[in-house]
Automatic annotation (TrEMBL):
It comes from the Eukaryota. Pfam families: LOR. Belongs to the LOR family. It comes from Ceratopteris richardii (Triangle waterfern). This is Uncharacterized protein.
Amino acid sequence: MHAVGSKVVVVGERFCAPFAVELDVSQKSALKSDFEVRDPQNRLVFKLDSHALSLHDKKVLVDQDGNPILCAHKAKLISAHEKWEASLGDKYDEEKKLFWLQKAKVMQFKTHLEVFLPSNPGPNPDFTVKGDFLERQVQIFCGEDSIIAEVKRKMTASNVLMDKHSFVVTVWPNVDQAFIATLVVVMDEIQD
């Protein structure tokens, strides 16, 4: 995490706003694992596209113009903890790693994910995600106790009928929205 004043910057400072932002994160169709992220005026902010050859194993976050920002992929480690890694660009690059996340415990009934930055020697995570993601009630914390975003399920008739995953994400002021949007979609992949 790059501390820029009182900002929480993981992907880039340009993705921070000086005010709280409500984002609509919605699966484009029940058949594909692609997501769109829109602002309250329904303007496209980001898209997270899965790639046909990797399906659930790779997501590329692009801006509203289609420019790649980061790539998140499921790590190929044999582990009881499901692990995802993210780096700058449209292909995963260890040298440009931004963060990695995993389940805090192998068996868990509630969501508890730990997010680590490359500069963290461990064992304490830089960010934690806690709540009940199946019910879409989750909080994202900087460390263990400072809330930086909340995720809630967006219930509409079409979302329920079409089994589309849709969330309202409130991102606190000066928090990296690209980072939070990526975490939400990866959480959906882990919990699906």
